[in-house]
Design goal:
The protein has one domain (about 10-110): Rieske [2Fe-2S] iron-sulphur domain (Rieske Iron-sulfur Protein). It has no helices and ten strands. The protein has strands spanning about 10-15, 25-30, 35-45, 45-50, 75-80, 85, 90-95, 105, 110, 115. The protein has a four-stranded antiparallel beta sheet with strand order 2-3-4-8, with no helix packed on it. It binds FE2/S2 (inorganic) cluster. FE2/S2 (inorganic) cluster binds near residues 56, 59, 80, 81 and 83.
Length: about 130
């Protein structure tokens, strides 16, 4: 059994290294079956993590793996019916679920590593 990492809070888990995320881009993470549970967006040293669950019809949002963002990289887009979400707030500002929000997964960047809660929030917690 390996030693517990010094900077690993008990109720968090390591998601990935910050460098594993393209700056200005997005990645799907925590694959389950054919879908990634998370949409992870990096902007510089900031990382925004959302459940990959569109509030419109509770579907994954990307049109193919890791393709969550608009062409200019400024918004998250659900490609099923073109809902547009603010990357920082998760709020839908255009599309069929305008005014609704993605479910945030609080993330911390510590020493070049991205940490998230050990237990993910649920869309049913809303
Ligand atoms: S399922 Fe996302 S916009 Fe319809």
């Amino acid at each position: 059994m390996g030693a517990r990492r010094v900077n690993a809070p008990a109720r968090e888990r390591l998601l990935c290294a910050l460098d594993a995320l393209p700056d200005g881009g997005a990645r799907g993470m925590l694959r389950e079956g054919l879908d990634d549970r998370l949409c992870v967006v990096r902007q510089g040293d900031d990382v925004f993590v959302w459940l990959n669950d569109c509030p419109h019809e509770h579907r994954p949002m990307e049109y193919r793996q890791d393709r969550f963002l608009s062409g200019d990289g400024q918004h998250i887009v659900c490609y099923a019916h073109s809902a547009h979400f603010d990357i920082r707030t998760g709020r839908c500002f255009a599309g069929p679920c305008t005014g609704q929000s993605l479910v945030k997964v609080p993330a911390r960047v510590v020493n070049g590593e991205v940490w998230i809660p050990a237990e993910l929030p649920s869309v049913f917690d809303l």
